[in-house]
Amino acid sequence: MPLSAEEKTRYHRQMILPELGATGQERLKKSSILCIGTGGLGSPAILYLAAAGIGKIGLIDPDRVDRSNLHRQILHETDFIGQEKLESAASKIHQINPNVRVVQHEGFFTSSNSMELLESYDLLLDGSDNFPTRFAANDASFFLKKPLIHGAIYQFEGQVSVFAPHLSGPCYRCILPQPPPEGAVPT
After folding, report:
1. Which fold has domain 31-174?
2. Distance CA 116, CA 105 (A)
3. How far apart are CA 187 and CA 184, in angstroms?
C-alpha cells in the first residue's frame, strides 16, 4: 500500500527523520494495534498512534464517557458524555486522521476472548485497570507471540513496559506470576 499524496503531506515531518523515512511510514500504515481501554492510559497513546499513521487501531472498552473522567481521558469530549467510549474514541481518531481504520470490539477483554481478539493485530496495548485483564493480555500475547505494551499508573507515578518474550526478555507473568490478593493494591 503506497502512501497517497495526502498521506505524504500529512506525515512529511516524521518521514524526514532518517530512522523512519517513507519506508518506515509505509510500515506504520500496514501495522495494526489492539488497544485495551480508552481511558486515562489508552487516551494519549491512541491519539499519538492515530496521528502517527498506524493503519488499523482496534479498540475494546465496555465503558461510557463520564464527565468526571474528562480531565484525564483526553480522547473523549463533553459532547460524548453518556455515550459509549468506543464511539467517542472512533470519532476522535477519525478527526485526527481519517486514514486510520478503526475497529470497535464491544465488551471486555477476557481470557475467553483474548486470543480471538488479538489474532488479527500486530501488537497489543494494555491500558486496563484490573489484574484479570492484564493477565489475559499477557497470556494472549505470549501464546500468539505478539509484543505487549503495558501501562500502569498510580496517582502521580506511571510505568510503561514492553514485553516480547518471543524475541527476548520476560513476560508479565515472569515478573508477577499471580494477581495480588483482593484489596492489596490501591485503586
Report:
1. Rossmann fold (3.40.50)
2. 11
3. 10
Reduce the DSSP state of residue 21 to 3 states and report it. Answer: helix
Average pLDDT on 131-154 reads 95
Please report, for residues 9, 108, 149, 173, the alpha-carbon distance to residue 152 in angstroms, rounded to integers and kept in the order given: 35, 18, 10, 15
| Residue 47 dihedral angles phi and psi, to the nearest 5° | -60, -45
pLDDT of residue 187: 66
Question: What one-letter code names the amino acid at 165?
Answer: P
Give 69-125 pLDDT, tens digit per residue: 999 999 999 999 999 999 999 999 999 999 999 999 999 999 999 999 999 999 999
Helices in 38-113 by DSSP H: which ranges? Answer: 42-52, 85-96
Element (H, E) at 7: helix 5-10
User: C-alpha dihedral over 75, 80, 82, 83, to 10 degrees?
Assistant: -80
CA gap 108, 32 in Å, rounded: 19
